[in-house]
């Protein structure tokens, strides 16, 4: 939980100051005088939007420099700091108005086809933001609803775990952008069942409102209860662990050279990013958490001894949940105090070096296979091996079955089994494959603002799987975001800080497509000017996508230029 003992906590030498910027006054800002000035600039960036390189800070009539020491400055409580500098560019409003479902025509007109753009929020029923944010992140796991289907027909009169699964399925269905529901609603039914499973979530504080809870505890509780409620697969695997379970190989070696070695395996549903005094990146925190020294009993010595514990990933899931261990229990104050240190995280995470030697060999083989297929297809495309009419010839069947590719397929599909005479059978729950190459794409970030876990505010940032747009889900308020907004969630101040990250794995086919598109864009030499504007023709074979993408107008249609990047919307 957020109150785990892992990770380092540094007692802050905090001094409250007032910052005046233009017409804005920021009161009671806490300055950690043990940290460099650069960290304070980052804190101001999150609060004002003024990047550190644009900030000019004046303290006691002198310009504050990054190399200055807070001790030499003589900062006192309630000191006034003047800041000058312009905020970052404000995101422009979309040129085309977003059409919401309630405003669309029900006659099947072309305008009505845009209803999938609706993003729905969840109303805060009194400090329930931790639950709302958790649900929005879980909603990014497209296969989850498929696994919840077996619970629909079960009798829930006595088992609260089954009720929880049924209620979650109903809630995710209402959040589905393709259903006709209000833009936001109160998740009362799900919250009621959640408090049955864990009554502490239903406790009230002064003012007859619910107490704030830890979002990581909510996340872990939901997954553990679903794991017990859902029927196991034929091979005995747990559906939740098939989605989120990271099989860890743990090796404990007696440091006193007794020759004792103990090996065990376990399944974790969250990787822990331990935040120490020198941790500045997610990968560092993950790696530090894999090796530690522990005390345990030695049968040879007949007493407790020092052991070296090494963990390696033995098997990867399609979705990787990562917990930034930002809270540590302070027994005197009896609170989970927050570690504010800035820890950056990537949009694409390669976990190869965190894996066991056997798994690394498998992942490298998959990557080499993907590289060869990519090179072969690029050679075909760039050498002009296509039909005379200019369209790329599509194979009847992709060289790699679609079922072994995307982990994000939202619905189960019919499969044909040869041993059954080619007769179609319903595939049942959606097919989930292992993470094939050990590369994960960031799809959701749950953040926390505040100094302790049981107070403050939780929100979530989620990436649309269709067009790649990020959205902020602040309870019932949903707004589009830029990637730069996500990059600011690293910490270092009192703004929202990443607490849980959810990533979906990249398969050889999607990895090849991403790299191939970038290569093809570099290869394009010929453009044509038409009445409708500039047009570029790109041919992509079926190894990369199930549909040909042939023509991309620059000013309209499926090609969108955004912040200097090209976003391709296929289909």
How many strands?
30
How would you state the average pLDDT, rounded? 76
Low-confidence stretches: 1-12, 99-117, 385-434, 522-529, 537-571
> Could you give a short account of the major beta sheet?
8 strands, mixed
Quote the distance from N terminus to C terminus: 42 Å
Q: Which structural class best describes the helix and strand composition?
A: alpha+beta
Q: Taking Cα atoms only, what radius of gyration do you get, to the nearest Å?
A: 26 Å
| Relative helix content | 10-25%
Shape assignment: globular
Counting DSSP H or I runs of 4 or more residues, the number of helices is: 12
Strand content: 25-35%
Description:
The chain contains 12 helices and 30 strands. It has 571 residues and is an alpha+beta fold. The two termini are 42 Å apart. A hairpin with a 3-residue loop joins strand 8 and strand 9. Strands 12, 15, 18, 21, 22, 23, 24 and 25 form an 8-stranded mixed sheet that branches. It has a 5-stranded mixed sheet with strand order 2-1-5-3-4, with no helix packed on it. Helix 10 packs parallel to helix 12.
Key structural traits:
571 residues, five-stranded mixed β-sheet, alpha+beta, globular, eight-stranded mixed β-sheet
Q: What's this entry about, in short?
A:
Strands 12, 15, 18, 21, 22, 23, 24 and 25 form an eight-stranded mixed β-sheet that branches. The chain has a five-stranded mixed β-sheet with strand order 2-1-5-3-4, with no helix packed on it.
């Amino acid at each position: 939980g957020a109150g785990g003992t892992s990770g380092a906590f540094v007692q802050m030498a905090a001094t409250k100051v007032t910052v005046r910027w233009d017409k804005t006054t920021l009161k009671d800002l806490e300055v950690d005088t043990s940290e460099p000035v650069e960290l304070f600039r980052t804190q101001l960036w999150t609060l004002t939007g003024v990047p550190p390189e644009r900030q000019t800070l004046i303290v006691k009539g002198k310009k504050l420099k990054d190399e200055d020491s807070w001790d030499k400055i003589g900062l006192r409580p309630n000191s006034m700091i003047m800041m000058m500098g312009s905020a970052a560019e404000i995101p422009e409003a979309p040129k085309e108005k977003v059409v919401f479902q309630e405003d669309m025509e029900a006659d099947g007109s072309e305008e009505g086809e845009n209803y999938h753009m609706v993003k729905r929020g969840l109303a805060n029923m009194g400090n329930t933001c931790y639950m709302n944010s958790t649900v929005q992140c879980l909603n990014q796991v497209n296969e989850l609803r498929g696994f919840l289907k077996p619970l629909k027909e079960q009798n829930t009169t006595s088992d609260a775990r089954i009720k929880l699964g049924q209620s979650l399925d109903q809630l995710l269905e209402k959040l589905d952008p393709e259903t006709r529901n209000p833009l936001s609603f109160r998740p009362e039914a799900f919250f009621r069942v959640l408090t049955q499973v864990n009554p502490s979530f239903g406790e009230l504080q002064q003012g007859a409102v619910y107490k704030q809870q830890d979002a990581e505890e909510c996340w872990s509780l939901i997954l553990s209860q679903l794991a017990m409620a859902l029927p196991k697969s034929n091979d005995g695997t747990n559906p939740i662990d098939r989605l989120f379970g990271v099989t860890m190989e743990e090796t404990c070696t007696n440091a006193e050279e007794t020759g004792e070695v103990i090996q065990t395996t376990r399944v974790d549903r969250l990787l822990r990013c331990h935040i120490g005094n020198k941790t500045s990146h997610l990968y560092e925190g993950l790696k530090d958490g894999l090796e530690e020294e522990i005390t345990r009993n030695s049968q040879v010595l007949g007493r407790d001894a020092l052991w070296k514990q090494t963990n390696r990933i033995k098997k990867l899931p399609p979705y990787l949940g990562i917990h930034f261990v930002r809270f540590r229990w302070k027994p005197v104050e009896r609170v989970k105090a927050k570690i504010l240190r800035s820890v950056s995280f990537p949009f694409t995470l390669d976990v190869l070096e965190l894996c066991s030697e056997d798994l690394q060999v498998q992942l490298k083989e998959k990557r080499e296979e993907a590289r060869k297929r990519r090179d072969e297809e690029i050679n075909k495309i760039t050498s002009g091996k296509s039909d005379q009419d200019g369209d790329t010839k599509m194979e009847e069947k992709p060289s790699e079955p679609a079922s072994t590719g995307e982990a994000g397929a939202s619905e189960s599909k019919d499969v044909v089994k040869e041993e059954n005479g080619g007769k179609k059978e319903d595939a049942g729950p959606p097919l989930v494959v292992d993470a094939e190459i050990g590369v994960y794409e960031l799809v959701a970030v749950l953040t926390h603002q505040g100094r302790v876990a049981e107070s403050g505010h939780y929100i979530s940032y989620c990436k649309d799987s269709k067009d790649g747009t990020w959205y902020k889900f602040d309870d019932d308020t949903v707004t589009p975001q830029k990637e730069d907004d996500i990059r600011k969630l690293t910490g270092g101040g009192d703004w929202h800080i990443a607490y849980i990250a959810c990533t979906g794995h990249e398969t050889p086919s999607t990895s090849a497509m991403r790299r191939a598109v970038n290569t093809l864009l570099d290869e394009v030499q010929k453009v044509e000017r038409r009445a409708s504007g500039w047009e570029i023709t790109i041919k992509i074979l079926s190894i990369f996508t199930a549909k040909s993408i042939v023509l991309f107008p620059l000013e309209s249609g499926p090609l969108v230029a955004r912040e200097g990047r090209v976003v391709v919307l296929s289909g």
